[in-house]
Write a structure and sequence with these properties.
By secondary structure, the chain is an all-alpha fold. Helix content is 75%, strand content 0%.
C-alpha cells in the first residue's frame, strides 16, 4: 500500500515539472499576433503605404496624371468623418496609428518640401539675375 501511494506522489511531482506542451503553441500564437497582420490588415497597410508613397512622389508632379494622383491622395488623407471602410481614419485606427498624428506629420513634411523648393528656386533666380552674358566675337 505504501508503494502504491509513493507512485502516485511521484506521478504528481513529475507532472508538475513536465513542460507544458500548449504553452509553446500559445506563446507562438501571441507572438504571431503581435508581429503579423491579418490579411485584411495587410491590405489596409498596403493602401496606407501606397497613399504615403503617392503623396510624397507626386507632390511636385507637372503632368496631369501625377497632379491628379497627388490631389486625390491629399483629399483622402485630409478627409475626416468618413465611415467608409477604407477611409484614412479607419485604416489608421485598425492598424493602431493615430490618424491626426500621421496627418500632421505628412502636412509638415509637405510644408518643408515646399519651403525647400522655394528657397532653392529663389536662390537660382538671384544668381541668374546677377549674371552677365557675353557674346563671343565673330
Amino acid at each position: 500500500m505504501a508503494y502504491a501511494r509513493r507512485i502516485r506522489l511521484d506521478d504528481v511531482q513529475d507532472s508538475l515539472f513536465q513542460p507544458d506542451v500548449l504553452a509553446e503553441r500559445n506563446y507562438a500564437k501571441t507572438l504571431e499576433r503581435s508581429q503579423h497582420f491579418k490579411p485584411e490588415e495587410q491590405l489596409m497597410l498596403a493602401v496606407l503605404e501606397d497613399a504615403i508613397f503617392c503623396y510624397q512622389k507626386y507632390l511636385f508632379a507637372q503632368d496631369r496624371k501625377g497632379r491628379a494622383l497627388f490631389e486625390e491622395t491629399e483629399a483622402w488623407l485630409l478627409e475626416e468623418g468618413s465611415d467608409w471602410f477604407f477611409s484614412f481614419n479607419n485604416i489608421c485606427e485598425v492598424l493602431g496609428f493615430d490618424p491626426q498624428y500621421l496627418r500632421q506629420g505628412l502636412l509638415r513634411w509637405k510644408e518643408e518640401q515646399l519651403a525647400r523648393t522655394a528657397k532653392i528656386s529663389h536662390g537660382k533666380k538671384k544668381k541668374a539675375a546677377g549674371r552677365t552674358h557675353t557674346v563671343p566675337y565673330r
